[in-house]
Amino acid sequence: MDTRTKLLVGAALLAVVSTPAMAQTDEAADTGATAQNNDSPAGDIVVTGSRIRRQDLAGVGPATVVSAEQIENTGLVNIETVLQRLPANAGFAGNQTSAYWTGNGYGTAQVNLRGLGIKRTLVLLNGRRLVAGGTGANSSPDLNMIPVVALARTDVLKDGASAIYGADAMAGVVNLITRNDYEGFGVSARQGISARGDGRDFTADLIWGIRNDRGGLMAAATYQTTSAVNMASRAPCSLAETTPGKLACVNSASTIGGRAVLPNGQQINFNQVPGGNGNFYEPYSAAKHNFNSTPFLNAVSPVERISTALFADYQITDGVKFFGEFLYTHRKSNQIATPGTLRNLAISASNPTNPTGQNIVLVQRRLAEPGARQFFQETNTWQGTAGLRGKFANGWAWEVAGSFGRNTAVDGSTNVANLERVGNTINTSKCSMTAGAAIPCADYLGFGDLTPQVLDYILFTSRDRGGNQLATVTADLTGKLFDLPAGPLSFATGVVYRKEKGWRNPDPLTVLGVANTNQQDPISGSSTAKEAYLELSVPLLADTPLIKSLTLDGAVRYSNYDLFGGDWNYKFGLDWQLNGSIRMRGTYGTGFRIPNVPELFGGVSEGNLTTTDPCSRYAASGNATLIANCQASGVPANYVQLGTTILTTVGGNQKLQPESSKSWTIGTVVQPKALIPGLSLTADWFEIDIKGAIRAIPGSTKLAVCYASANLSSSFCKDFTRSPLTGEVTFLSAQPINTGREQLSGLDLGLVYNRTVGGVAVSFDLNATWLSKYVVTPFPGGAPINFDGHIGGGNGGYPKWRGYGVLNAKKDGIGITWSTQWIGKATDFNALPGAIGYRTPNVFYHNAQLAFEVNEKTRFQLGIDNMFDRKAPYIQSFTDANTDTMTYDLLGRRFYVGFRTAF
C-alpha cells in the first residue's frame, strides 16, 4: 500500500469511528467553494469549479475560502499577501520583497498555486477573466487591482479546471468574489511600520453603496503607498563560504576601479580611492576590490497605487437583469539597482589614459560615479464588463456578457550607458580632451576619473512602453433537464470568444543593442480562442444504505486557437456522501495551455542574474564527477567564482508548442457533528502530470545539472560558455523550452472549527500541504530534476511541508487573532552536502491582532506581524539578501494600527 493510499484510508477510518452511521442531518460541509456574486433561484448558487447552479458546496473539489472577515482579522490589505501565505502557494511569484519580479511585471502581485508557475493559475473576478497587468506582454493579472474592501471572499480552487474555465487553469483557480449587498458609506485606514522604523505603509479604503427593489450601485476605492527598505539594512553584503565552515562577503567582481586582463592573462585592478592616483593599478584581489551591491538594492520596493471599482445591477423586467462592472487602477512603482557595468573594452597601449603601456581588455568596470540606477514603472489598467441575465419560463437561467480590458505602461531606467558613445570616448580619432568637445575622451581606468561631461555624453534614461489587452464575449445557459430517481439532472453549456494581445516596445537604443542594459527586441502578438463547453451533474443514487447521495459530474470543452488549432478537454468528478458527516470525492481532468505572448514572441534580452557556479572551488569538493567535468571545461584548479552574477540570456522562443496535462484528486470530508460539533476535517490527494511543459530552467540549475552529468553529457552543457583566460562563465541561456515532463503530487489537509465556548466565539482554520513529488524532466530521456523539498537558485521554494493556521476568539466586541505561517525544511538546489546553507530549517512566522468593535459599524485594530522577528535563513544559491526572497520575509517584526467606520 503506497503512502497516499494509507493517508486516505486513515482519514476514512477516522471518519467511520468518530461518526455514527446514517446521521440524520442535511447540512452541507462548509469546506468547498463558495457562491459567486450573481442571482440564482432560491437555494441555488454557482460555485467556483462549476457553472451549474446547485445547493451543495463541498462536492465540486478541494478549495480554500478566505472571507472578508478573515482578511480583516489578520490585518492584511493586499490579496497577494493573503494568497502567498496559503500552503498551496509555492515557487516563484512577484511581490514587493522579490527583486526578481516576473519578466516585465515589475510591481505586479501574483499567485503561484502548487508552484507550477503563475501562468498556470487562472485568476477570475466573479467568474470572469481579468486583463494581464505589468509593463507589457504579461501573462498574469495584478491581484491588487481589486479594492480589498469590495471583496466578499476569495475562493482558491486547488484543482485543474481547464474543462470548466478554459486554458491556464492547470494548477487551479483564484476567484475574487465581490460584495453585492452593501448600503451606506464606509471608510477605513491602516498604517504600518517595521520595528526598525522603516518600511512605512499606508492604506485607505472608501466604499459606498445604494440599493432598492430594482437594483443598486456599489463603488469602492483603495489608496496605498509603501516606502522603500534598503537591502543593506537586512543583509549588509552578499555572503559565501569562502573557507570551509565560514561565511564571508564575496560581492561582485565588477569593480568601481575597473578589472582588466593583461596580454599574459594576469588580472589587474585600477584605483578605487576617491581622489587617489588616477594611474595606480595593482594585481586584482577579490577580497580587496569586489563591489558590495546590496546598498544599491531594496529589500522592499516602494509602490503607490489607486484602485477603483464600480458595480451595478438593475432589474429591467421581472425576467431580465442588467449588470455591469468597471475597474481602474493606476500604479507607480520603482526599484533601485546597482550601477551599470561596462564590459570587454579594448584599450590600446597608446591610449593616453592607459598607464600599463600594454594593450589591455577592461573586463568589467562599474559606473559608480553617477550612483544607483532608478528603475521606474507607471501603469494604467482598466476593464469593463456589461451583460444581461435572466430566466426562461422553464426555469433555465441564461447570461450574456462582454468584457474589454486594457493595460498600458511606461517603464525605464536612469543612468543607462550608450555603448556606442562609450566606444567613441576611447577612440582617440573621434574624441578630444579639449574642454567643451562634442565627444569628450574618457578615462575608465580608475574610479572618479570620469568627468561630468563624459557622464552627460554616455548616459541616458531609457523609456519602454507596453501593454496588454483582453476582449471576451460569453453566453451561458444552465438549468435542469429532467428529474431522475435520485434528483434532477442539471446542465450548463455555453460558448466563449476570447482575444488576448500583448506588446512591448523597448527604448530604441535598447533595441539597437547599444544601451548598457538588457538588450531587448520589440514584442507584439495576439491569440484568439473560440470555445464551447458542456457540463452535466448526474445524481446516481440517494437515500440508500451507506449512500446519502452519489453524484457524477462531467464537463467537456472544445477550444480552437488561431495559432495552434483545436483541442478537447474533459473533467469527471464523483461525490459520494455516505451520511451527514462523511463524504468522499474525486476528480479527473485534462488541461491544455498554449504559449502566451511573452513566451512566444518575447524579445531576447540579456541581464546579470544571481547564479551559482558549481566549479567554484571544485578541487576541494571531493566530488569525482564534478572535478573531472570542471577540469574538462578548462577551469583552473584554484578557480573561485568572481562575484555572484552571470550574464544570462532570457526571452521568448517561437518554437514553443502547447503543453497538456492530466490531473486528479481524491479526498474525504469529515464532520463529526455528534462528537465534536463545529469541526470539519478534509484530506485531498492531488496529482498533476504535464507533458511538453513550458519552463525556463534557471541558470544555477542548468549549471548544476550539467556538471553532475557523466562526461558533461547533459544537453544543458551547450547553454553556456566559459572564458579561456579566467575560467568564469561569460554567457548562459535561460530561454523557455518545452521540457519533457513535469510531475507533481501531494496531500492537502484542512481543519475548520467554529464553536462558542463560555460565551466566547472561537474559530480555528488550519491548512497544510505535503509535497510528495515534483519532478521536472528537462527533455525526453534526460535526467530528472527534483524540485520537491528544494529551494533557491531562482526557482523559489518547494519545501515538503507548508502550513497556515488562524485562531480567532471574540467576545463582547473584543477580538483576538493569532495566525502562524509554517515553511518547512528545504535543501538548496545547487549547494553541496555539508556546505553552509545546504539545508534550511523549519521557519514559523507568528502574527497577532487585537481588535475593538465599538459597534457594528466601527472597529479599531492593533497588530504585529512576524512577532518574534524571525530572520530569513541563509541559502547558498540565494536570489538576493542571502536568502530566497520569494519564500521568506525580509522586513522582520512590524506593527500596524487601523480602523473602519460606516455611515
Low-confidence residue ranges: 1-43, 99-104
- Give the mean pLDDT: 88
CATH class group: Mainly Beta
Task: Provide the structure class.
Answer: mainly beta
CATH architecture: Beta Barrel
Helix content: under 10%
Count of domain modules: 1
% residues in beta strands? over 45%
What name is given to the CATH topology?
Maltoporin, Chain A
Integer-rounded radius of gyration: 29 Å
**End-to-end distance, in Å?**
61 Å
List the helices and strands and how they pair.
Layout: H1 3-18, E1 45-46, E2 53-54, E3 63-67, H2 68-73, H3 79-84, E4 121-125, E5 128-129, E6 151-157, H4 162-165, E7 172-178, E8 184-194, E9 201-212, E10 215-226, E11 229-230, E12 239-243, E13 246-249, E14 259-261, E15 267-270, E16 281-283, H5 286-289, E17 298-300, E18 303-317, E19 320-337, E20 341-347, E21 360-366, E22 373-391, E23 397-417, H6 419-425, H7 452-458, E24 459-484, E25 487-505, H8 508-512, E26 523-544, E27 547-561, E28 565-577, E29 582-593, H9 597-601, E30 605-610, H10 624-632, E31 645-650, E32 659-670, E33 679-691, E34 694-695, H11 699-708, E35 720-722, E36 729-733, E37 737-738, E38 741-757, E39 760-777, E40 785-786, E41 790-791, E42 797-798, E43 801-811, E44 814-823, E45 826-828, E46 839-840, E47 843-853, E48 859-865, E49 894-902
Would you mind describing this structure in some detail?
By secondary structure, the protein is mostly beta strands. The protein has one domain: Maltoporin, Chain A (Beta Barrel), CATH 2.40.170. The protein contains eleven helices and 49 strands. The strands form nine sheets. The chain has a 22-stranded antiparallel barrel. Strands 3-6-7-4-5 form a five-stranded mixed β-sheet. A five-stranded antiparallel β-sheet has the order 16-15-14-21-20, with no helix packed on it. The protein is globular and about 95 Å long. The termini are far apart.
